[in-house]
Amino acid sequence: xAVILASGLASAExxxxxxxxxxxxxFGEKLMDGFEKAVKEFGGEAILKAxxxxxxxxxxxxxxxxxxxxxxxxxxxxNDYDALEPALKKAMRRGIKVVSLDSAVNPDSRDVxxxxxxxELIGRVEVQAIYEMIGEEGQIAVLSATSQxxxxxLWIEWMKKELKKPKxxxxxxxxxxxxxxxxxxxxxxxxxxxxxxxxLKGIIAPTTVGIAAAGKVLTDKGLKGEVYLTGLGLPxxxxxxxxxxxxxxxxxxxxxxxxxxxxxxxxxxxxGDINGEVGDTFNAGFLGEKEVIQAGEGTEIMLGAPFxxxxxxxxxxxxxY
Amino acid sequence: xxxxxxxVEKNISIEREFRTKDFFLQWEWLLLLIFFLIHIINSQLSxxxxxxxxxxxxxxxxxxxxxxxxxxALVIIFGDIDISVASTVALSSVIMAVAYNAGLPMVxxxxxxxxxxxxxxxxxGLLIVKxxxxxxxxxxxxxxxxxxGIAYIILEDQAAGEFPDWFNFPGWGYIKGIPFILILxxxxxxxxxxxxxxxxxxxxxxxxxxNEVASKYSGVKVDKIKVAVFTLAGLMxxxxxxxxxxxxxxxxxxIASGYELDVIAMVVLGxxxxxxxxxxxxxxxxxxxxxxxxxxxxxxxxxxxxxxxxIVGLLLIVSVMLSNLNKK
Lengths: 321, 328
Known about the structure:
The complex is a heterodimer of chains A (about 325) and B (about 325).
Chain A: H1 2-6, E1 15-19, H2 26-41, E2 45-49, H3 56-68, E3 73-76, H4 85-93, E4 97-101, E5 112-115, H5 119-133, E6 138-144, H6 150-163, E7 171-178, H7 183-196, E8 200-205, H8 208-220, E9 228-231, H9 235-243, E10 249-252, H10 255-271, E11 281-283, E12 289-295, E13 298-302, E14 307-310, H11 314-318
Parallel strand pairs in A: 1-2, 1-3, 3-4, 4-5, 5-13, 6-7, 6-8, 8-9
Antiparallel strand pairs in A: 10-14, 11-12, 12-13
Chain B: H1 8-45, H2 52-77, H3 85-101, H4 106-130, H5 136-155, E1 160-161, H6 169-172, E2 174-175, E3 178-179, H7 180-198, H8 200-210, H9 212-217, H10 222-248, E4 250-251, H11 259-269, H12 281-300, H13 305-325
Antiparallel strand pairs in B: 1-4, 2-3
Helix pairs in contact in B: 1-12, 2-7, 2-10, 2-11, 2-12, 3-4, 3-5, 3-10, 4-5, 4-10, 7-8, 11-12, 12-13
Pfam families (chain B): BPD_transp_2
Protein name (chain B): Autoinducer 2 import system permease protein LsrD
Subcellular location (chain B): Cell membrane
């Protein structure tokens, strides 16, 4: 049987799979591109998967299919922080290395997490941005992805902590709405926010699908200068709204680099260069030397700080991703 | 075909009977053929497919929702439909988790989960027989929203879990190398097979599906039977909730989204006619494994998920068209 299994499938450097939250998400496409690029660099075979629906159930099925294929490592951007635990533990028992990236799974379900940027920094920076845009007082709302998206939830927690500072006493967070990273739902949630809170002055959308949908709604309704938008967006999708003033500036990191780092971390785990312990270091291709650090109960590898996009630099970046 | 000597009239009626019989035989044979074809194709596609471990493990990925397909077959034989089952799964699961976290022993929480499922089904059934002017699809559309709404009220946007370790067993455990879920499903499949094909209850289900008014006049307690079948659908949704929650180790109000459509697809592909009165459990069983293994096998060679959906969709369209060829 082993002979049959080895026929032409196992590449010398192993098989690396990445599972994104759902298909058709531009951020996810870029992330998977970066992952594939890195896997090709070190000579492995890349498997890219994304379910049609952004659910944990669909990701569990994919994990099981990857276990059956005897892949060497799985990198996953999770639809649920806890619900993948039994499936990922099974994968790890079968000797498969597991990294989460973009959206984490709980520390028990992974060897290491790849963090795109410090969650505290992301949460605080977005509140500071909207505070400046709306003139330091008024109602704001958050438009997130799904209610279980662990990365978004963490950022929103930090936003709430930042808002507790006395300087924000005149800023009121009226609602956290969930557009589930679906364009239609994000549009209707934005419209609902505007209807329910006619006094609303700012929206923070810490998700690329949400911010693009909100940008379109605010542009179509001619609310530029009345309701401000910031958050995390893809430059190529947001250039129009940054230039027309609906979203004066926003933040993101490079999803291509994020996927790239995820693949190199998985490779380092497979080759035994690292075990995902604090203090482990490895070489991540053109990103250079990276170190594993403590993160709550588990460990993570940090990509870098969030990057600001505004009218000045958007034209350059919209060509990149 | 030895009755060629009978009278012409008798001949025609007998022949018609044989034709439908033939067709139904053909339908299950066709499903069986597709079933084997899928295995042949899958094993050609992936070297990992054709071994006992993979095939047994594969059943763990799709059997959770299959429990609902068994009673759904009976519902559709009535000519009705129940689209609230996925919401019932979510509500049973959420209540089980919340009750356990509030201190109820896990065994009782499991029973509570089954009871909530049963209760949701019972409410569906009672509403359907009480408000005859509303079709089942409208009633269950309302309860679909209602049940999931309650689940959201209970948990809002949070997840709940922290179950004891042994609760991993239903979704992930084996007995002598065979997945526990497969063993339990086989048991339920036999029960429903006997219920529909070997009992007067089953015969009455067909009678109602063929002609509700006539069966009422011939003394069939239509309402009672309908309530019983919808209650069964709810109960089996509770069973699905157990397995799905065990598989995920935690729960949230939005679990099992879209399960009702997957289940209806299994039943329709199984040759149960949506116009009522026709269909067999054996066909539904074949359909469950056809769709399940098809999706699993394509996933195993990493065919994109949307493409898998298209292929399953095409299979359904073709099968529905084929089953309509027989209708006059």
